[in-house]
Write the structure tokens for this entry.
Amino acid sequence: MTSGSPIADTPSLAQLPWLPYIDEEGQLPPHLVGKIGVYAIFDEGRSLQFVGYSRDIAMSLKQHLVRQPHHCYWLKLQTIDRPSRTALDGMSQAWIAENGSVPPGNEAGAIALWTQDIDVRPYMTEADHAAYAASEDRDKAKTLKAIARRVEATILDTLKARGVAIPLRFDPKLKDDGYLGLKSV
């Protein structure tokens, strides 16, 4: 943890140890619950995919894993004692600069895929589109909820195949609007 100026004390990515995103028991690193800091997410080949910061690193990592399961295999991170948006942003920008290019997940068109609730509309089949278009306004929510449940099942199957054993609960209220987002467990 940093004790002085968080930006001045920011270690380079190369100096930080590699941490598995998911341990042998299928869990996130337990020491990250409620921790504030900056993290870098790497794919299976250890290529930088996303740099972010959070007031609860563990919750953010859960969200990223659900949204981008094929890109979350390794971590590097730095925690800080006191939240400071300026310090956290400075650290994340330093790591992106060190990388030499903007990671794919931090590019303008991709940030939402890592940070926003999952919109299930792009996963609609032709039959889903037809059912949605033909349904009355009050039934559109049911159609979106059914699609959200299908997408949720696919995500959970993907994570199970990776050995993920983290308890995950999706917010049922978002499904009516065609979104998937984790609810705090």
In short: Residues 137-161 form the longest helix (25 residues). Confidence is low (pLDDT under 50) at residues 1-6.
